[in-house]
Design brief:
With 196 residues, this protein is of the alpha+beta class. It contains three helices and ten strands; from the N terminus they run αββββββββββαα.
């Protein structure tokens, strides 16, 4: 009885999945995935620049038209645009296509910055209203932070990468030789005491 009920539930779920997959793919629409990435670059003058890049992927089954990217999360009192623009427009993004955009900012104020997701608007022929997609959020950026000197850490890291495996193999061989070369008198005394 329980086996028959389990088979019935499994076949009902399979039918449900097939029907829902049919309905999900019946309408051809774009599906936007927007990846936002920011990296900090400290200049020798002490200033810090933020490089922001976007990759917009159309993972849907149809073309998106009038694609516009707007990233308004960068306050003009805290950041100055050095290279590029914080917004960009394209005529279209075909299904399976990728668009990229980047710009560079210079930080004016020290502190932690929490960036909001950027907005991508696009139009599809079957709907009159503009569609929206949001980018991935940024991790907090510690702008103009007092960072400890990393030269010693870089040297240690390079040495560890270069000689780490060699040191571990040598230490295993030394341990093995030590175990083989130690006198076995303590072991034989302990085993002879157990025999009594």
């Amino acid at each position: 009885m329980a086996i028959a009920l389990a088979k019935l539930l499994i076949s009902a779920m399979a039918v449900f999945m097939l029907v829902s997959a049919t309905f999900a793919t019946s309408e051809e629409v774009p599906f936007m995935v927007v990846h936002k990435k920011a990296t900090l670059n400290r200049l020798k003058s002490g200033a810090e620049r933020v490089s922001v890049s976007f990759d917009i992927y159309n993972q849907g089954s149809s073309t998106a038209y009038d694609v516009t990217l707007i990233d308004s999360s960068w306050d003009k009192a805290k950041f100055e645009v050095v290279n590029g623009n914080t917004s960009k427009s394209w005529e279209r993004l075909d299904a399976g296509g990728i668009l990229s955009h980047s710009f560079e900012l210079e930080a004016k104020v020290k502190g932690v910055f929490y960036g909001a997701p950027a907005v991508v608007t696009f139009r599809i022929p079957t709907k009159p209203a503009l569609q929206e997609a949001y980018s991935t959020p940024l991790l907090p950026l510690d702008i103009l932070a007092d960072k400890p000197p990393t030269k010693m850490l870089d040297v240690a890291k390079r040495l560890l990468v270069k000689y780490g495996s060699l040191v571990s193999v040598i230490s295993m061989v030394v341990c093995f030789v030590y175990l083989v070369a130690t006198p076995k008198s303590n072991v034989s005394k302990a085993s002879s005491k157990k025999k009594r």
